[in-house]
Amino acid sequence: MSATPVLEVETLRLELAGAGDAFAAVEDVSFAIPRGESMGLVGESGCGKSITALAVMGLLRPPLRIAGGRIRLSGHEIQGLGAAELRKLRGKRISMIFQEPMTALNPLSTVGRQIAEMFVLHEGASWTEAAERAVEALRQVRVPSPERRVKDYPHQLSGGMRQRVMIAIALACRPELLVADEPTTALDVTVQAEIIDLMQELAAAQGTAILMISHDLGLVARMCRRVAVMYAGRIVEERSARDVFVDPRHPYTRGLVASLPRLGSRGADGRRRLREIPGVVPSIAAFPPGCRFNPRCADAEERCRSAVPAASSMPGGGLVRCHVHG
Ligand SMILES: Nc1ncnc2c1ncn2[C@@H]1O[C@H](COP(=O)(O)OP(=O)(O)OP(=O)(O)O)[C@@H](O)[C@H]1O
Ligand code: SF4
Ligand SMILES: [Mg+2]
């Protein structure tokens, strides 16, 4: 097994070009995913999860651009690759599943053809062979009657079945990395768990690493070995899922953990009590100076309002970016 991580993101900076100034939507983001492992990226809406994923996939489009840092896939820089090379990489070595499969699937093509295409494009299979393998791929993601279903168009399938098709397409060529951006948010709760289990089981069986993106810390912590917590474009804590759960350090992470529904936490009215972190995520153009969490942080001190906290290493591995709790 190679020691080179499947994905290395180093001091990534993503800028949003405005009418005048360019704003850093993502700044100083670094993380690595070892081969075959899973990592979760969590944070509130707008913190920069999806654009980080798009940058990794080579899919970032103006007005956003990579303004600094490096992204390496199995040791190879992806910046500087041309559109054709990136296309070759996607699907074969790195795949992505989106929240809404309808936008990623081609409505005019049968699901069988869309799966088969992967084998033809990336593995040089003939269409006849690829069509047979598409049936197998659908069977693997547990779509009932796959021989018939390959002839369906995306709109003929339920949301859960469409997401299974997306998983089949994404994992068809046994990529090294699967990027899953809120893959179950649009689905019913019961279907969500099935899809997550399926994705995890198939990825594990073929040694595919997963970058799992979600606003749900509970979900991410259950399925990933490591968790990176993002706030307003920066990673504020990156540690093992267990450490994040048992001993969260950053006040924002603590807020996320405290807001998770727990057994026995029902209020007098019998409802589950959810604590929320007061305040809202600042917009890119109005990120506060110093620690970006300071307007919402109960522990904020004077220095938090002027100096950006450095990332400090934690004893059990990982990092925390906080003046007080780092
Ligand atoms: N195409 C775009 N043009 C302008 N701004 C954008 C674009 N895409 C994203 N942004 C901005 O970049 C920031 C990060 O967005 P991103 O989509 O990565 O958030 P996210 O963490 O994925 O949120 P969510 O949980 O809602 O999916 C946001 O402020 C968003 O408004
Ligand atoms: S650096 Fe200061 S404001 Fe930021 S999270 Fe830590 S204590 Fe709170
Ligand atoms: Mg998103």
Keywords:
326 residues, Rossmann fold, 12 strands, 31% helix, binds adenosine-5'-triphosphate, binds iron/sulfur cluster
Question: What would you say this structure looks like, in words?
Answer:
This protein is an alpha/beta fold and 326 residues long. The protein has a single domain, classed as P-loop containing nucleotide triphosphate hydrolases (Rossmann fold, 3-Layer(aba) Sandwich), CATH 3.40.50. The protein has 11 helices and 12 strands. The chain has an 8-stranded mixed beta sheet, with helices on both faces. The protein has a 4-stranded antiparallel beta sheet with strand order 2-1-4-5, covered by helices on one side. It is globular, with a radius of gyration of 21 Å. Bound molecules: adenosine-5'-triphosphate (ATP), iron/sulfur cluster and magnesium ion. The site of magnesium ion (MG) has 3 residues, from helix 1.
How do the helices and strands line up, and which of them pair or pack?
Layout: E1 7-17, E2 22-33, E3 38-42, H1 49-57, E4 64-73, E5 76-77, H2 83-89, E6 94-97, H3 101-104, H4 111-123, H5 127-140, H6 146-149, H7 159-171, E7 177-181, H8 189-205, E8 209-214, H9 217-223, E9 226-231, E10 234-240, H10 241-246, H11 251-258, E11 312-313, E12 319-320
Parallel strand pairs: 3-8, 3-9, 6-7, 7-8
Antiparallel strand pairs: 1-2, 1-4, 4-5, 9-10, 10-12, 11-12
Helix pairs in contact: 4-5, 5-7, 7-8
Bound molecules: adenosine-5'-triphosphate (ATP), iron/sulfur cluster (SF4) and magnesium ion (MG).
